[in-house]
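During the reporting period the student researcher (J.K.) took over the structure-prediction task from the postdoctoral fellow and processed the backlog of single-chain submissions. One of the processed entries is reproduced below for the supervisory committee.
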Amino acid sequence: MKGALGVFDLSVIFDIGVVALRIILPVYALIIVYQCYAAMRRHRRGEKPLVTLYNPTTGLKLPVLFWENSIGRSKSSDVVVDDPAVSRNHCVLLRRKDGWFITDTGSKSGTFVNGKRIHGRKQVLIDDVIGVGNSEFEFKRGAEYDEQLKSSWFFSKVSDKPAIKSWKLMLLVTIFHFFMCVEAMFWNDATNQYAPLVLFGALAAVEWGFFFVSTVVLKRINFELEALALFLTGIGVMLLIRQNERSAYTQLIAAAIGMALFCVIIKVIEDPDKVNKLRIPMMIVAVLLLLSSIVLGKITYGAANWIVIGPVSIQPSELVKIIYIFIGASALDKLQTNKNLFEFIIFSAVCVGLLAFMGDFGTALIFFMTFLLIAFMRSGDFKTIILAVAAAVFGVTFILKFKPYVADRFKVWGNAWQYAQAEGYQQTHVLTFLASGGLFGVGIGNGFLKQVGASESDLVFGIVAEEMGVIVAITIAIAVGALVIYARAITTRSRSTFYSISACCAAGLLVVQLSLNVFGATDILPLTGVTFPFISAGGSSIMACWGLIAFIKAADERTYAVKR
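J.K. obtained the following structure tokens:
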């Protein structure tokens, strides 16, 4: 009787522990995401002018806040000069390692430094006189601007100390993944109970190895963006252990390669002026990668977007996303002097066309939406956007006529339950098992959605919701979506328009991809077969995600500073 009671007591304690763990994980996920973004928000320098433009005739003082500043009559200019002789986009004042420079951007009256008209970039020194139109400004130090500046709301709380130290944030992330490991170890149908523990050990080694390289070897000041990416990456890896153990290790290896790619990209784009020289070679590489998919690609779910070489499979279109952002951005003086988007439009049309030809319409849509964002940020011209959308409508009409299986997805859209045993099979199962997971989930490995095709990639939002609960699923979606807010906030202090555009567009691309995945799986949008950033299985996808957040990292003014 006593022995039976002891067994009973242990089983009850075990059940209570499992339930407690399922409740803890959602709360813990919220804490981690909050701490990541709180650290991003607080640890910033104060808003102060870098230099001041002083008009001795009128006594007007204009603060120069950014590393690259457009000067002109247009209200959209960074430095607005109310002078009819000044062009709308007159010149660009920019800061580089060698000092401050000014470039005329095709103004009618020209730009002058100390009375001499400039051609190309001209260095500007303290107390030099800059002439634009009928106005002259003395180039002064930032401390000479004595008025109060307004800070952006996102960075309204400025502190010299981060909200949480990087190593503590990493510890929070690692403990979360350990809790996932513990939950996965007690899966009822487990044939290898300790497989999650071995995977967790490998994951922790990769995470802390990357942390060591970043903070000790590269001497990065901050780590919150990387910690957020590691948090999401680890969730995707640990979920795979009870679906496909081999895929879990493949995902982890690909993530490690992605982290290395992250570091390489930040180094390559360190000098925005050198980036422009790589544009044409990178365009050629992107087109060749897409062509290789057409020639060598294996058709999967109607799209020839995978190249299989022995045990390794690669999706070139994922890597082209990185190049696409790279090509779309540029330094401000280059954008101002070259308003014609013809080159980028042609490149975009080729990329989207090749993706459509190989049947990868989900990725084609992501590229098109990113093109609209880049085109608007580069030109601010709504006519270009309207023309592009009109062309896209024509293209979609053409595709629906000659690609009937795409039309089938539109037929199912919003009517998945009417086609529950046919085209709507995946969406209806996502909705069913998403609801069965409730707020806290049924436990890692205990879900049934993993038995549906592409559950680990296209339908992974449903897997997270079923096994970890709706709270965790929505939290990780918000974690990715909020990157747009963060990227937009840091661009006002980034060192170049190249970083501003690339950061906003990389974040925008990830959010478009997130939206298509989540809303497609839940029948709010047509199912396009794109991945959930960082979470979905797929080596090429996880590498591309790490490559894309490198652009966001580079836009942070602290990235190229080192600890002293």
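The committee noted the following: The first strand starts at residue 51 and ends at 55.
J.K. will present the remaining backlog at the next meeting.
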